[in-house]
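Researcher: Next entry in the queue.
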Amino acid sequence: MKRISILLLLGFIVSCSPRLSKTQRQIQEQITVSQVFKNNFTGLFVYNPMTKDTLVNINGNRFFTPASNTKIFTLYSSLKLIPERIEALKYTTLEDTIYIKGTADPSLFHPFFKDSTIYHFLKDKEHIKLLKGQLEDDHFGPGWAWEDYDAAFSPERSALPIYGNVLEVRTVDGKASFKPEYFVNSSQMTAFSMPKKRANYSNEFYVPLVKNDTLHIPFIQSDSLTAHLLSLELNKKIGLSEDQSIEFDQLLSGIERDSILKQMMVVSDNFLAEQLLLNASNQHYNRLNSYDIRRYVIDTLLTDLQQKPRWVDGSGLSRYNLFSPISMVQVLEKIQKESPNYLEFFPVGGETGTLEHWLNGTDRPYIYAKTGSLGNNFNLSGYLITNSGTTLIFSFMNNHYTKPTSVVKKEMGEVLRLIRDHY
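Model: Structure for this entry, 423 residues:
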């Protein structure tokens, strides 16, 4: 009876909306009647940027927990505010000492980038001091899950990250290698897996030797630890300075901004997202304050959003974030207009990153989109290329389900293929 009543209601809606196409009615019915979407909160907004037509709008103006779809806003902010080569360091020379100041560039000795720009710049300098206390944010974002402190996806934020703010441990045949090696003496080897890989309030690590593996374990950050780790690499002492009156009038350029953006988006790297927002703050305000830069982007660059979001971090780790599908599509359209190679930033259906094993095309990819997942939430926002060659922009958001995510994704795939085949 309930299914029949829903169908009757849908029929009434469709009959009162003569402008709905057959495909639109099919999509409306599939989402409204689907047992998969029955008890969760679903939103879908599909837009044709060439004709300015809205093709599908189901709860498009409602607010959802976006998870890593938040990175779409971080991508846009970075493209607008960070130069093509990221600022790696600010510095000045006073008498015989070079003073350096972190800009939140995440690439120094990062496990993926392995950048050594700062190392080569400093290796011939005799006296070096690092300015303390530059990070105005907490090391963790608001609303992050406290129990994730040892999870690879949740490193701490910092002014001058090093090694991606994680300890990399490779275990092979019962032996372990460490990067940085500094943490060897504070690591315990175990013959079994521990509930946690690091102590809660100290840099004591627990490394299981039961299988060959590569672990990335966040370490607790501090200015003194950063200075010490960099000292070990340079084989010279780096001091700390608390003199906030120093004017840092020179900058060191680092690696290409877009290489960091692509890695952030394709593998959904939370650490890179957080650091990029801080680097954008450094660029615009000469301060490391992600709240200020988020507020600037919303109040200055995105004043035309139909629904002003609640945006609290760069990565989407926080459940405090609230975005609508329409706002996601609006920002995606701006990225499309302003970045000629916009598709390169996104995972490709069936080929790369978080979409490698999902949404395969037949003879070519048709989905370029950012996933976003938290417990009981899964979202997908990006670009869909139809069989007719039209590029549509969409945001498909699902919150508060209790079914396996694989079931939700399968049903989402059916809807997206329907759009691909009929528009």
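Model: Residues 152 and 355 are 20 Å apart (CA to CA).
Researcher: Noted, moving on.
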